[in-house]
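Ticket 4471: requesting a sanity check on a complex prediction with iron/sulfur cluster. Repro inputs:
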Amino acid sequence: MKIRMKIVKSQKSNNCPSATQDLKLNTKNRDSAIRAEHIQYGPLNVKYPGDYWKDIAKYWNTTVKAAKASNCSNCTAFDISPRMKKCMPGKTSDEDGELGYCWMHHFKCHSARACRTWAKGGPIEKNDISYDWQRRNKNK
Ligand code: SF4
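Returned structure tokens:
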């Protein structure tokens, strides 16, 4: 009985993040990330970014080229581990990149977009690192 409970508990702790399974929650978290002054997730359309890269480059006090090279695809919170790919709703890549899970703002973000809280060190490509982010998020 004890062993069975342990297995159930460990399976539960490895569950997909709620926002990957709940469109309403994902949209709510994404919209908050778009609106929040300190996040500013975008651009909406990577082919028509408007002033997005210019604005974020100004925020980071850098060039547009450097800002464009600092996007979700190489952010420390961007999770594209094999286990997270299984949490995604089918095919999630296109000619611009792919969807992954953002552990900082809890929604499915696109590799070609960015935000003001970008941090060097990603993406997360290994299951054990992905589970570690999940465990640390639960402990908060
Ligand atoms: S993965 Fe990084 S850059 Fe992308 S939304 Fe999350 S924190 Fe921002």
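Notes from triage: Residues 12-136 form one domain. Leaving this open until the requester confirms.
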